[in-house]
Every structure is written in C-alpha cells, then in structure tokens.
Specification:
- There is one protein chain.
- It contains 6 helices and no strands.
- It is mostly helical and 123 residues long.
- The longest helix is centred in the last third of the chain and has 31 residues.
- The protein is elongated.
- The two termini are 17 Å apart.
- The relative contact order is 0.16.
- The C terminus is likely disordered.
Length: 123
C-alpha cells in the first residue's frame, strides 16, 4: 500500500492536499514531514487544558488547525477547529474531550507518515 492510500484510509483528503501544492507530490510529502516536526516541537498534553491562561495552548491549537487544513487532514482539521472555538469561549473541559478523542487518529496519521518517510530516506 502507498503512503497516500493509507492516509486516505485515515480520513486525509490527499487529492485536496495535493491540489493545494499544485500536485507536487514531493512537496506534499515534505509538508507531511514538517507537520510531524511541528507536532513534536509543540506538543499538546491533556494537562495543558487546565492552565489558568490558555493563550499558549490557543496559539498551538491555531497552528495545528492551519497545518491540518493545508494538508487536508480533514478529521484533525475539523477537531482542531472545534477545540479552538471552545478554548476561545473558555470551555477547556469540552475542548480536551475532543482533543482526547482525536488523538488516536493523529497518532495513526503520524505513524503512517513516519513509516513512509523512513522507508524513502533509506533508499
């Protein structure tokens, strides 16, 4: 199976993502790698939703919303959009519930990307 096929099975609209980069598959793959880097360098933990000041968390969620939107990671994008709206309404408890529900999908997408990026880097 291919990277793009597996991503589609995880809910990523690969065709839309490719359209955003003028069908440049290597660029899209590079952006997928950048997504992993951003997640790793700006992690979100469930405890972050308990902070008194949510500004930092809102900033990270906003960044992930944009990244997942540009990459057409539809389930992640839609969830980050909901999380962001809830955080802005100071409803962190509801936001963390959505985050925890979508986290397994995010992990699966990241693991999928890593498998293919690592395979292609070895060649």
């Amino acid at each position: 199976m291919s990277l793009f096929k597996e991503l589609e099975e995880l809910g990523v609209n690969v065709n839309e993502g490719l359209e955003r980069v003028m069908d440049d598959e290597p660029l899209y793959e590079t952006m997928l790698g950048m997504f992993i880097d951003k997640i790793n360098n700006n992690p979100i933990e469930s405890e972050d939703f308990n902070a008194e000041n949510l500004d930092d968390l809102i900033g990270r969620v906003h960044m992930f919303k944009g990244l997942t939107g540009n990459l057409a990671m539809t389930p992640l994008f839609e969830s980050y959009m909901q999380i962001l709206d809830l955080l802005r309404m100071n409803r962190a408890r509801e936001a963390v519930e959505i985050y925890e529900r979508i986290l397994p999908t995010q992990v699966a997408i990241i693991e999928c990307i890593k498998r293919y990026i690592n395979d292609s880097e070895r060649k």
